[in-house]
Specification:
The protein is about 40% helix and about 25% strand. The chain is built from five helices and eight strands. The strands form two sheets. A four-stranded antiparallel sheet has the order 1-8-3-6. A four-stranded antiparallel sheet has the order 2-7-4-5, with no helix packed on it. Helix 4 crosses helix 5.
Length: about 160
């Protein structure tokens, strides 16, 4: 994927809605492209998040692993942010992220580049942070809906 296509993707991304084309180009200078293959681990359980990922194409899945079994607990589709929890709170990751498709492409913002971005271009960094908050909000809402559905199923009054 060429830099022009990545810049176009980023310029259409909701995070960039209030950024000028010049600011989008500046943000691109802080991001690196990560290309993965089917089932490749992108981020693993126990790692402290040193990168924040924007899914450009393909799908990544999140897995819980109790040592005997890996269970899918979520998916990150094109346009979504991944890895933001451990990136910001610096607590080791609780799930594993794997590419679900060949040629899953991500843009990674490393901690060192984010730290530079905050100092050199605070307005752009605020946009990244706000999008991370929105992403976490969406995640919490999805999990809340799943828990509510599960609880209704589990505790539904039975017929006597």
């Amino acid at each position: 994927m060429t830099r022009d296509l990545l810049t176009e993707f980023l310029s259409k991304h909701p995070m960039s809605a209030s950024l000028t084309p010049s600011e989008v180009d500046t943000l691109m200078q802080y991001l690196e492209v990560v290309e993965t293959h089917h089932k490749e681990i992108i981020a693993d359980i126990g790692e402290v998040g040193e990168g924040l990922f924007f899914v450009v194409s393909g799908t990544a899945a999140l897995y819980d692993d109790d040592g005997s079994q890996e269970i899918e607990v979520g998916r990150m589709e094109t346009g979504e942010l991944a890895g933001e929890m451990s990136f910001f709170d610096r607590v080791p990751r609780g799930v594993r992220m794997r590419a679900l498709t060949d040629n899953t492409r991500l843009l990674r913002l490393t901690r060192s580049k984010y730290d530079r971005l905050r100092v050199e271009h605070p307005y752009i960094a605020v946009n990244v942070l706000e999008f991370a908050i929105i992403s976490l909000d969406h995640l919490i809402r999805r999990v809340s809906e799943d828990v509510a559905t599960y609880a209704r199923y589990l505790y539904a009054p039975g017929k006597k």
